[in-house]
Amino acid sequence: MTYRVIPVEPFDYVVFGGTGDLARRKLLPALYHRMLDGQIPEESRIVAVSRRKMTDDEYRAMTEEALREFVQPDAGSAEVMQKFLQMLSYRSLDAKADEGWDELCNELGDSNERVRAFYLAVGPDLFDDICRRLGRHCLVTENSRVVIEKPVGRDLASAREVNDAVATAFSESQIFRIDHYLGKETVQNLMALRFANTLFEPLWNSAHIDHVQITVAETLGVGSRGEYYDTSGALRDMMQNHLTQLLCLVAMEPPDVFDANSVRDEKLKVIRALKPIDEDNYERLTVRGQYRAGASDGGAVPGYVEELASGKSRTETFVALKAEVANWRWAGVPFYLRTGKRLAERVSEIVITFRAIPHSIFPRDSGVISQNRLVLRLQPDEGVKQWIMIKDPGPGGMRLNYVPLDMSFAESFEERYPDAYERLLLDVIRGNQTLFMRRDEVEAAWAWIDPIREAWDKDGSAPAAYTAGTWGPSAAIALIERDGRTWHEDTIR
Ligand code: BG6
Fold first, then answer.
1. Which residue of 26, 148, 154, 218 sits with most ligand 1 atoms within 8 Å of its CB, as the best mutation to test the pocket?
2. Cα three-residue angle 328-245-121, rounded to 5 degrees
């Protein structure tokens, strides 16, 4: 692959939460990789902000250690590493106090042209304080942007509060609500497949598609994130954002052009067309689970509650839903969505299953004719497989076989696969909001999710237990099998 690297103008990235996990594991490695590829000019600056007291040199040492841990060992030269480290500086600031902000302002200078991006890699409870202080201390220039990490709220009401708080200092065109799933290569490829080919779009509707499955399965448990996770659960942590966004990209109408507002307008229409799931139908359409001790990644692992300090919880670590987009294109086509921690495999994929053939002309002993499937694998082993029926080669009569037309990106394109954050962090600098969520989208997604949560809360029962290292509670299997279908991994992989 000859990928195109278009350098950006020098910029300033101010990372709140600069010593945190996200900065160390994702943001700094992503910027480093972009620098290695020659996309970031060395006059750019990265200012890390956090409450801890630390000197610039101590922060550089911490970053170097993080890069050694999270970037492939042979990535780059000592020279690039030194240049990258020299771009970094550190500032200790308390989001809830006024000291130090004017100094940050002086450090950044008063250039209106230079792009200035504030990345809020902190809990949403600090968004309000930070944005108000950025505004009050004149840090927000015409060319400033702010990036906010999920969760944007924990329900519709709190999402509105978060959005209002951020809007005190930034206009909507300056706000980048990140959903890193949109930066994944296969997700963008879904748009290329749909809208840069004539092959799929005529079939992309209820007349030809039987159902859609979206799975985001993780083998990891919640580990040290228990404190946050236990107040969230899989519905809020994954379903409201990542899976709903994937569903939107599968189901949306072709936008007029591939730009931020056209794409987001179409996604919003999909979210608004989702049939409500509430106390009248949640028992039929939802499943929630919580892992108990089992085996994962080749070893014994504790159950969810054992990982928590409190030792008890009713938070779900698994959720499966049967959703439907109630519009002309999709009415009657089920979208089965599931996500969970400590499942049998780490795999994220979108599976489009086409309708069965109306009539077989082949004798029974030719073999079973399976439905065509288009499988978009987000991770690991990114790629697309189109499962089709063919004749087995050679003599012996007509023997039919189900095989994949396989397009593994890693094999086809030899380059390293960029992490989602690399693309998204630079989109912020370029001012391209296409792969970021607009306020109305986030709020519409909460409006769809909230009644599910309310129905569960009212029900009051505990999530179904599943053993770590399995595919979730048996009720999730029943959810799809009731309709005479199976989850993708049960049949072919
Ligand atoms: C995050 C969730 O948004 O996505 C985590 O908060 C989850 O709980 C993560 O583990 C999954 O991302 P990825 O890119 O590893 O699939």
1. 218
2. 160
Which amino acid residue places its CA nearest to atom 4 of ligand 1? Answer: 238
C-alpha 341 to ligand 1 mean position (Å): 10
237 lines ligand 1 (CB under 6 A): yes
Cis peptide before 380 (omega within 30 of 0): yes
Domain borders along the chain are 11-149, 182-417+438-481
Half-sphere exposure for 286 (CA within 13 Å, toward CB): 25
For Cα atoms 9, 264, 288, give the angle at the middle one, nearest 5 degrees: 115
Determine the distance separating the centroid of ligand 1 and the alpha carbon of 217, expressed in angstroms: 10
Please give the pLDDT value at position 2. Answer: 53
| Beta carbon of 210 within 6 Å of any ligand 1 atom | no
Q: Check if 242 is active-site.
A: yes
Length of the chain: 493
Q: What is the pLDDT of residue 311?
A: 84
Tell me which DSSP letter residue 445 carries: H
Which residue puts its alpha carbon closest to atom 9 of ligand 1?
238
Alpha helices in 168-259 (DSSP H): 185-195, 226-229, 234, 244-251
The torsion of the CA quartet 127, 128, 132, 135, rounded to 10 degrees, works out to 40
Whether the pLDDT of residue 411 is over 70: the answer is no
Residues 58 and 93 sit within 8 Å (Cβ to Cβ): no
Cβ 441 under 6 angstroms from ligand 1: no
116 within 8 A of 84, measured Cβ to Cβ: no
The closest of 418, 384, 347 to 30, measured between CA atoms, is: 418
Which ranges in 8-55 belong to alpha helices (H)?
A: 21-22, 28-36
Per residue in 231-277, pLDDT (tens digit) is: 999 999 999 999 999 999 999 999 999 999 999 999 999 999 999 99
pTM of this structure: 0.94
Does 182-417+438-481 match 11-149 at the fold level?
A: no
Cα separation of 376 and 350, whole Å?
A: 5
Q: Is the beta carbon of 218 within 6 A of some atom in ligand 1?
A: yes
The CATH H-level superfamily of 182-417+438-481 is Dihydrodipicolinate Reductase; domain 2 (3.30.360.10)
Tell me the CATH class for 11-149: alpha beta
Strand duo 373-379 + 175-178: pairing: unpaired
Active-site residue, selected from the candidate residues 33, 211, 242, 488 = 242
Q: How far apart, in whole angstroms, are the C-alpha atoms of residue 382 and residue 347?
A: 10
Residues 6+ apart with CB under 8 A from 181: 187, 241, 242, 245, 246, 378, 420
Q: Which pLDDT value is given to residue 493?
A: 43
Half-sphere exposure in the Cβ direction for 440 (13 Å, CA): 12
Give long-range contacts, CB 8 A cutoff, 24+ apart: 152-155.
152/124, 152/177, 152/437, 152/442, 153/124, 153/442, 153/446, 154/231, 154/232, 154/236, 155/446, 155/449, 155/450, 155/453
